[in-house]
Specification:
Elements (H helix, E strand, L loop, with lengths): L1 E3 L11 E5 L7 H17 L2 E7 L3 H5 L11 H10 L4 E5 L3 H4 L3 H12 L2 E6 L13 H11 L2 E4 L4 E2 L2 E2 L2 H9 L3 H8 L4 E7 L13 E5 L9 E9 L2 E10 L10 E6 L10 E11 L7 H17 L3
Helix pairs in contact: 5-6, 7-8
């Protein structure tokens, strides 16, 4: 997959079958668009492309909003490549770009610069200044400018439309299975192992503290069963998101106890994939009660089948 941060870096080879949007999470709704792109591209001898933005436009329009994303930039690139997209445009949502009307965007960018011959958009997508671009505009311009346009229907699970917002809400409610079902893969968080207070090792549960990307959404505070990937090896794990109230902690931490693992992994990159929710964050009466609960969580993690 070729990645472009600037349209001027791109030299059209074949015409493109393209879709545009944030694609945050690259969930099953997005996957249906990507599958259609690949089908159309194959049938019409077009290269496939996705045009998305970094950072999220909401950071530009609402700089004080505490928006967290389902994907980091690297995660989004990984998923697009995994799903066999050939060209990925990660366009900065700058002042010049945000002032393009929907029609200017279609004419100047999609047609003149990218040579798009087939455009696929989601069921609720709008674009351009003041959201002036929509499916109706695309239908009108397609005849004049010589491209085809298709609008995809929403993908439903349990009679609910899939959306990035619904995935976020499921994660914030601790509903990991529902979130993973909408994503089509287990939600993951990556980061660097850093030094913590090392309380876990004094009670037989040494944990790895993960320093995560500040832009990445963390699920609800609580305990989880996770898959852990470190040094190219896979393990089962119990993960806690919270402030460690039993020992009067204040800072939010992400800590994982890795089953059947020993070794020093400080400064290592680690990835955890969320598989199930165990329980809310609990303030125990003392360390003895905490250890009892950890023993039970460990038993559940050991029995869990990935």
């Amino acid at each position: 997959m070729k990645v472009f941060k600037n349209f001027n870096d791109y030299t059209p080879q074949k015409p493109l079958a393209l879709s545009l949007g944030m694609f945050d999470g690259v969930h099953l709704g997005h996957k249906s668009i990507i599958d259609e792109l690949i089908k159309v591209g194959s049938e019409n001898n077009l290269e496939t492309a996705v045009l998305t933005f970094w950072p999220h436009p909401r950071f530009v329009f609402n700089p004080n909003e505490d928006l967290k994303l389902l994907n980091t930039r690297e995660e989004k690139k990984f998923l697009m490549e995994k799903y066999n997209i050939e060209n990925l445009f990660l366009k900065e949502f700058d002042e010049e770009f945000r002032n393009l009307t929907g029609e200017e965007f279609v004419r100047q960018i999609l047609v003149d610069k990218l040579n798009v011959k087939y455009l696929i958009i989601g069921y609720d997508h709008s674009f351009g200044k003041n959201k002036s671009g929509n499916f109706k505009l695309l239908q009108e311009l397609s005849k004049e400018l010589g491209f085809e346009v298709e609008q995809m229907e929403a993908i439903n699970i349990h009679e609910n439309n899939i959306s990035s917002t619904k995935v976020r809400n499921a994660l914030l409610e601790g509903n990991i299975k529902q979130a993973n079902e909408m994503l089509g893969y287990p939600y993951s968080v990556s980061g660097t192992v850093v030094h913590g207070k090392k309380i876990g090792r004094t009670i037989g549960y040494p944990t790895a503290n993960i320093e995560t990307d500040s832009i990445k959404l963390l699920p609800k505070k609580g305990a989880y069963i996770v898959e852990v990937f470190v040094k190219n090896q896979q393990y089962k794990g119990m993960l806690s998101i919270g402030t460690n109230p039993t020992v009067n902690g204040e800072k939010l931490t992400v800590e994982v106890y890795i089953l059947d693992f020993e070794g020093d992994i400080y400064d290592e990159q680690i990835t955890v994939k969320f598989r199930d929710y165990l329980h809310d964050e609990i303030k125990f009466e003392g360390l003895e009660k905490l250890i009892e609960r950890l023993d039970e969580d460990k038993r559940l993690a050991e029995e869990f089948e990935f």
